[in-house]
Amino acid sequence: MKTNWIRELFSFSKKERLGIVSLLFIIFLLVAIGKLIPYLVPSNTIDFSKWEAEVNTYLANSKKQIAVGRTLKLVVFNPNEVDSLGLVDMGVPSNVVANWMKYLEKGGRFRDKEGVKRIFGMTSGLFEQLDSFMIIPKVSVQEVKAGRNAILVKSKSEYKRDTIFNHSFIKSKKDRVGVLELNSADSLHLLEIPGIGPVFASRIIRYRNLLGGYYAVDQLREVYGMREENFIIVAKYFKADPSSLKTFNINFSTLKDLGRHPYIGFRTARKIFNLRDRMGKFSSPEDLSQVVRSDSLKRLIPYVKFIQ
């Protein structure tokens, strides 16, 4: 009695048995066809060799561009006297420049080149490139005791004052120059100005290159290390010709070009870039006023062209 339901479960009529066999045959046939298709139908093998070659070429060019971007434009310098602009112009990474300046501002001094090697962020490759261009004057014990070396015995503020504006030198220097045009004067002409030494002459020229030229003598106040009393001393020897400014087209300048300008900076440059993408080309200073502060915009306008 108990096994009757099992028999009934597996009891099929002739038609049912025929249907089951047919279904199994179809399943088997489909499986067999699936296995045979790769052998019966030729497959088109995709050739990736050309694509791989293009990728390898792109990667090789990218490495070359990175290597070129890291090439330094080095000049001979004293690591105790160099400033941030000088290091940036030479191509030293910004993190190394920041740590370098922090060390000097705290009164630190490099007695040898190994001290530079210990700057946080300095790599062995970067140090090897800088090594042959660094000059640290050797000072005798007698000179240090006599106070002839300001680098070792003076504070940071006194060091800046003597390096940039040596007032005893001003008194002994003959006032034998007329009024110089700021945008055409070279370092030799600048050294003729009472109150300007080699360090400050290089800063004036570097800042002039970053700006694209001076349109007013008052812009000398923005040069790194310029104090008001120093500006009053040198301002009377200069004039500025705005016609010689190097202007740039705000509608076609790259993010890098915009960011390098002292009156813009990379944060504002990104805002300008994004706004230009959204609204299209700029046609007037009013368009820029949406992302550039009014004081910065006023100083920036003489350098900007709005040609579309």
Describe this structure in words.
- With about 300 residues, the protein is mostly helical.
- It has 3 domains: about 55-155, no CATH class; about 165-245, Photosystem II 12 kDa extrinsic protein (DNA polymerase, domain 1, Orthogonal Bundle), CATH 1.10.150.320; about 250-305, DNA polymerase, domain 1, CATH 1.10.150.
- About 55% of the residues lie in helices and about 5% in strands.
- It is built from 18 helices and 4 strands.
- It has helices spanning about 5-10, 15-40, 50-70, 85-90, 95-105, 115, 125-130, 140-145, 150-155, 155-165, 165-170, 185-190, 200-210, 230-235, 255-260, 265-280, 285-290, 295-300; strands spanning about 180, 240, 250, 305.
- It has a two-stranded parallel sheet. Strands 3-4 form a two-stranded parallel ribbon.
- It is elongated.
- The model is unreliable at about 65-70, about 145-165 and about 165-175 (pLDDT under 50).
